[in-house]
Amino acid sequence: MLNGRPSGKVRPVSDMAGIRDAVHQAAAAARSASAGLEQAGDDTIRDVLLDMGRNLIARTAELRTANRQDVEAARASGMSPGLLDRLVIDDARIAGMADQLGVLANTPAEPRVRKVRDLDGGTVVLEKRRAVGVLGANFEARPNVTIDMASQSLRSRNACVLRTGAAALRTAGALVDLVIGPALEGRGLSGDCVRLLRTPDRVAAEQLVQHPDGIPLVILRGSGDTTRSLAQKAAQAGVAALAHADGGGVLYVHPAADRDTVTRLIDEGTDRLGVCNRLNLLLVDTAVFDELVPGIREQLAGHQPAIELVGPSPGRPLGWEWALDDANNATVTVAPVAGPLEAAEIANRETSGLAATIATEDDDAAAAFLAAYAGTGGFHNRTTRLLDGFKLLAVPETGINVGRGPGPRGPVTFRDLWIRQYLTVPAASAARLLDA
C-alpha cells in the first residue's frame, strides 16, 4: 500500500492517475487528522515528541537494518561518498536525533494569541497564530529529515505528507512505522497526522506540490535543478513553497586574520562534504594570497578523503556548489580578492547567498564585510557550518530558505509554520483569548 503503516515495503505506483490519487488520499487523511492536532494540549504534543525520541532508541537495531539496506543499494548504484554520508544513520546519529526531539519538546510554547494594540471604544486588536493544516515535504537521500519534518509539523500543530526518493525510502518507512506512528497513537492522536508516500516514482513529488486545496504549503529540501523545478511547479499551481535548492559556504581570509583561526575555520567547514553549509568557496585577500594558499592546499590534501583546492573552473561559476558534483565533491574553489567589499560582492553575486564568514582580527573590516554581504547568514571568525537550525537557534529545522523575499529566511523552524489571523474584539473577549 502507498500509505498507512503496516508493511514498510516499497511498492511503486507506475501510473500517473494512481499516484495522483494516492497524494490526494494522503492529503485528505492528513487533513482529517489535523483537527486533533489543533485541539491537543501542549503537554500532549510534548509527550508525542518525547515518545518519538524514546522509540528511536528502543528501535535502533531495526532502524539500522532498514538503513543498511538503503545504503547497500545506493552504494551498488554508484552513489557518491558525499551523498552516502547523508544517507547513513548510525547509532550516534540516531541518538542525536533523539536528543534534538527532547530539546524541541522542551522548547517553551509561544503564545497563540498576542495583543497588537487598543482601538477606540474598548476594542482590542489581536494577532492569532493558526496552523496551516497540512504541510507537504519532499527530500532526497536524508532519512533524518523524516524526523525533522514530522517533529516540526507536529510542534506547529500541522499534519504533513512526506515524500522521499528511492534511496532513503526503506529508512523513512521504518521511521514512520516504528517511531512516529506509535508515538502519535500512544497519545490518542491519529497516525494519519504524518503520512509517507511509499513510492520512489518522482511523479509523486510533482503531484505533492500541485495540490493547493489539500496541501497549501510545501517544504522542498534538496539541492539543484530538481528542487528548483518543483518550486516552479508549486508556484504555477498556487502552492506556497519554502525551497532549499542551493547552498555553499564562503570563507574570506582578511590580511589581519589569525592563522590558527583560519586553520580552524577550514577544518570546521570541511568536516562533511555532502552538506549545504560546508566550505565551498575560499576567497583569500591578495595581500596574503601567495603566503597562505600553499599551506591551505597542504592542509586540505591531508583530510580524509583528501580535498582538492582548485581555481575557478571554465564553464563553472565561481561559486559552483561542489557538494552537488558527484565526481568532485571533495573540492574547494579558491580565488584572490582585493578586500572585504569585493569579497562580499563576489559572495552576493556568485553564490546562492546561503552563508559567508570573514576571518579577521580587524573589527572594522568584519563590520564592512557583514554590512555588504546580503546572504542568509553572515559570520565573523565562525564557520558557515553554524547555519543550521539546531546549531544556530537551538531547535531543529525543516530546511534553510535562502529566498530574498518576505517570509521565513534562513533555518525554518516550527515557529515559521503558521499563518496570521487578526481579530478585533471587545476588551473582555480579548482577555479571555489571551488567557486561553
Describe this entry's structure for a reader.
The protein has 436 residues and is an alpha/beta fold. It has 2 domains: 16-246 and 410-435, Aldehyde Dehydrogenase, Chain A, domain 1 (3-Layer(aba) Sandwich), CATH 3.40.605; 249-389, 3-Layer(aba) Sandwich (Aldehyde Dehydrogenase, Chain A, domain 2). It has 15 helices and 16 strands. It has helices at 16-39, 42-58, 60-76, 81-87, 91-105, 144-155, 169-186, 203-208, 225-237, 259-269, 289-301, 340-350, 363-372, 389-393, 427-435; strands spanning 113-119, 123-131, 134-139, 159-164, 194-196, 217-221, 240-244, 249-253, 279-285, 308-310, 331-337, 355-359, 377-380, 399-401, 410-412, 418-426. A 6-stranded parallel β-sheet has the order 10-11-9-8-12-13, with helices on both faces. Helix 3 (60-76) packs antiparallel against helix 7 (169-186). The radius of gyration is 23 Å and the shape is globular. It starts with 15 loop residues before the first helix and ends with a helix.
